[in-house]
Amino acid sequence: MSGIFLEEQESTNKLRKADFKAALVLLCIAILILLETLKFPMTGSYGGVESQWYVSPALFPLILVSVLLASSALLLITAIKARGYRDVFNYKGWIGDFGQSINRDRWFVIIQLLLYIYIFIPSCDFFLCTANFLLAITFRFYLSNSALMLPLYATQTIAVAGLFGLRASLLDEFYFFSMEIVSDEKLIAWSDSLLAGMIAINCLTLLLFSKAEKIKIVYLLATCLLVPLILVFVFTFLLQVPMPVEYGSVSLFLQWLWYDKLGM
Questions:
Q1: pLDDT, tens digit, 9 for 90 and up, residues 195-235
Q2: Hey, is 98 helix, strand or coil?
Q3: pLDDT score recorded for residue 98
Q4: Burial (CB count <10 Å: 0-12, 13-18, 19+), residue 137
Q5: How buried is residue 198: exposed, middle or buried, by Cβ count under 10 Å (0-12/13-18/19+)?
Q6: What are phi and psi of 181, to 5 degrees?
Q7: What is the pLDDT of residues 11-41, one digit of tens each?
Q8: Which residue from 12, 27, 69, 248 has the fewest beta carbons nearer than 10 Å?
Q9: Which residue, 161, 159, 103, 167, is CA-closest to 136?
């Protein structure tokens, strides 16, 4: 019985530690949202009509962030009472043990998603961003060849550094996490060329150095290159669903092909 009790106690302690960490993260997010929401106008005159606080665009976000703050605070208090703050400064408790492959794989996916959403999509054509993301994921989980990972890491690093450098050199005012570069055709063209070059290097690496069967390589390249292209085409022109970004070399080519050449 004592062994079962100790296991249950250990499980409860792990849950309380997880609650404490989750509450801290949620509190930080809620505070950031609150600071941004407070910038919204609460009242004002628009077109000669006086806008009241109860129709303010800030009202609903304020309600949601208030609930999030209250819930996070309650969770934090509960975790503190159960001494969930113990080992809070142990970095392995936050990021996991990198000696375990499951934690390395988890952070690889998280980093690739962050790069995809916050760096590549605001800077490059959506098709190129998606193909690059799929190549990175399949290199690691589909091929299971550690020798191919070094070229992948190198191309990803060069792409990110190159995009930062392009923005710093071609924009009068540097900003990165923004999609407002539609009017800067030169920046878009250079960014697309850079990412396309990195994709080409990864494809050549796969063709020349992969020990996988040829049919497996064909399936991989078809998935990473053709499937995103087909999906972009279908959603943009057939379903009329806008992509996250609609600028870029491939998007412009598809628009030229669909509207100018095919006359659709």
A1: 999 999 988 888 887 777 778 888 888 888 998 888 888 88
A2: coil
A3: 64
A4: middle
A5: buried
A6: -125, 15
A7: 666 777 778 888 888 898 889 888 888 877 7
A8: 12
A9: 159
